Structures are given as structure tokens and as C-alpha cells.
């Protein structure tokens, strides 16, 4: 398969006249949407960052969880020169399949495998649970040179809450393609716990780490960011965005923080 870093790649299609490329990849029985933004004016060869969305908790938001990421990807690509990939994980957007932590882990691994063609320098930037997942995948893949997390839970026991309640949240959010594929409450809960963000982040240094969090995050306490820093033994950058809540994807201060990290990560 051709490299995504090669602008002449034939297995990607363009959406209209912009620089967003789109294709579908398989992950087990799921078919995932993958989009890649590239800059026409500031191309930086062989650098790719993958944006990883989180798990929505509001009714019906599963189909929209990754909705803002292609726009963010295009902005980041234009400003940084990096290739910026966004994939919708199982059960989200138009991707098929059903959420579980292990399925999403496999999905992210499949995306990493796809963008690794041509051996680019790969980084991950995850939001919410997507950041926790990014830490877990990076801990077991040395091809990933750095990870940035934003509003990501460190204490997944507290984040999930009661197993029955978490099971209902997943159903209500609409990330279930086939109800028969949804794990039972205890299995779903235990599967999430295996992601272990604090244990995972300990395995990443000396690769680069950025932990971003809003000071007024009501869904994931800012204390979780400090737990991640402690897990990395302080070998990471910490950015607390004052007055910001949980939704950081559209916060210009988050965007500036991520762009600065990418610029230092060349």
C-alpha cells in the first residue's frame, strides 16, 4: 500500500477541492472512516499526528463524537505542516461496529498501521477517553514518538462509575451497532480498566508527552491530569487551561498548545 505521506497516493479520495483525504479501513468486523488532512503551503515530510476522539456520554452523541475533528485536523495541518489523521472508531459516526475498550484499542492500532506506511514519525493526540487509549497503545508501540492528551481520565474506575450505569451510558450514547455485540456490564467495565492510563504512561518516556486539562472540567477532574504526570514521574509537559471545561477540542488555547507541542516535536 502506498504511503499517506506521498501526495500521489492512489488509494485515497479527495472530498471536494480541499486537502481532506478519505478512505475506509477494516478493524476486525468493523469498517472505520479515516480522514487525512495535509497542508498545501507548509508540507512537513514524514510527520503524522493521529487525533483520537473520546467516548460521548450524552444521548445520541455517538454519531457526532468525531464530528469536529476533520475541521480541527485541517487547521492543524495548515498551521503545522504535519499530516493530521482522524479516524472514527467502532460505533462512532459512519463507522460500523460496537464500542468496547479492546475494540477501540484494536481500531487505533489499525489506524496506526495504516499511517505507518512509509515509516513516518507518528504522534497521537487524544481527547477524553481517547487520550487514555492513546497512552495505552503508545506504551506498546515504539513507532509512536509522542502522545498528547486533553481532558483524559487517569482513574478509569471513577470515570466509569457503576458498571450497570456505564453500560447504560454506552447504549444511550449510540455507539452500539449490534446489541448482541455489546459486552455485558461487568465485562464492559473490566475491559475499560485494562487500558490503565497511569500504568501505560509510565512506559512512554523518554518519548514526548503533553498533558492538557481544563481547570473547570466537571467530567474528568483536573486531579486526573496530575495523576498522569505522577505516572510519568514528571517526565512530561503539563498545561492547565484556566477556566476551561471538558470540551477542549474547539478551545483556541488548546489548539495553540497542541500546535506549539507539534512545532517542538519536529
What tags apply to this protein structure?
single chain, 266 residues, alpha/beta, Rossmann fold, nine-stranded mixed sheet, 9 strands
Q: What would you note in describing this structure?
A:
With 266 residues, the protein is α/β, with parallel strands linked by helices. It has one domain: Rossmann fold (3-Layer(aba) Sandwich). It is 34% helix and 21% strand. The chain has nine helices and nine strands. It has a nine-stranded mixed β-sheet, with helices on both faces. Strand 6, helix 3 and strand 7 form a beta-alpha-beta unit. 45% of the residues are buried.
The fraction of residues assigned to DSSP E strands is 15-25%
**Termini separation (Å)?**
25 Å
Mean pLDDT: 87
Question: What structural class should be given to the helix and strand makeup?
Answer: alpha/beta
Number of helices: 9
> C-alpha Rg, in Å?
17 Å
Which fold name fills CATH's third level, the topology?
Rossmann fold
Oligomer: single chain
N-to-C SSE series? EEEEHEHEHEHHHHEHEH
Name the CATH architecture: 3-Layer(aba) Sandwich
* Overall number of domains: 1
User: Largest sheet, described in full?
Assistant: 9 strands, mixed
Shape: globular
